[in-house]
Amino acid sequence: MNNFTLTGCVLGAGGAGVFGYQGLSSIMDTNNVWHDYTLASVTNDRVAGIIEAMPAEFMEQGLHYLAYDLPLYQLLLAGSVAFFLFGAIFRK
Length: 92
Prior knowledge:
92 residues; mainly alpha; 2 domains; 5 helices; 71% helix; flat
């Protein structure tokens, strides 16, 4: 198992954990602080400076979507799939 595959496993477990917690808390009708969990909410909006520094408008719009609109579990699961693919491509 290479480092890409190991990173994919960790990201997948994190994404599944966040998704499971959100699902369980929505079934229980609790006031969930993780309801709209995004990358910007995790980093306390520190990604705003990075997004504004992008030279092209399409890059700024894409990063804005990733940081503010995409739920964290989807970002983690997509990263997991990407690292699994990197692990398969760069296998020793």
